[in-house]
Amino acid sequence: MKVEAAFWDTSAVVPLCCHQSASLQARRLARRYDRMIVWWSASVEAYSALSRLLRQREISQGEFEWAVKRLEQMESTWWDVAPEEDARKTAKEMLNRYDLRAADALQLAAAMVWCDHNPRRRPFICFDQRLAEAARKAGFIALP
């Protein structure tokens, strides 16, 4: 079976950890793109999102604990793009080019570093519309 790689934004990682409206789509994409590439801080961002869902009582304590275990499982297999100078420089360029916040610019910069600044329509999995649009403009295929 061929392993297909894709860059995964945190907005697409969280629905793989707990039930959300995007979970079904995220699971389908995970079956197709089983090599997850993520920005170095994705696990912290996902944990933050899960903690927020717990505080807002959108998930129970048991669901939170299960989601954290799932996140840890994924984290043990995905590939992190390291926080290096190229990523920092590219994130600043993304902020000049697209309507993004800093964290989203870092996500897009990490994807650019992953593909050596040549997206050639590589998959960028993201449920954040603003970031997905920037990824498309940069040359990625933004999914879903």
DSSP strand content:
5-15%
CATH-derived topology: Rossmann fold
How big is the Rg? 15 Å
Look at the structure and give the CATH class. Answer: Alpha Beta
- Helix and strand run: EHHEHHEHHEHE
Uncertain parts: none
Q: Give the averaged pLDDT, no decimals.
A: 96
Q: What is the number of independent domains?
A: 1
Number of strands: 5
What's the shape? globular
Structural class designation: alpha/beta
| Helical run tally | 7
| Largest sheet features | 5 strands, parallel
How would you describe this protein?
It is a single chain. It contains seven helices and five strands. It starts with a strand and ends with a strand. Strand 4, helix 7 and strand 5 (141-143) form a beta-alpha-beta unit. It has one domain: Rossmann fold, CATH 3.40.50.1010. The chain has a five-stranded parallel sheet with strand order 3-2-1-4-5, with helices on both faces. The chain has helices at 10-17, 23-32, 42-55, 61-75, 85-97, 102-114, 129-138, and strands spanning 5-8, 35-39, 79-81, 123-125, 141-143. Helix 3 packs antiparallel against helix 4 (61-75) and helix 5 packs across helix 6. By secondary structure, the chain is of the alpha/beta class.
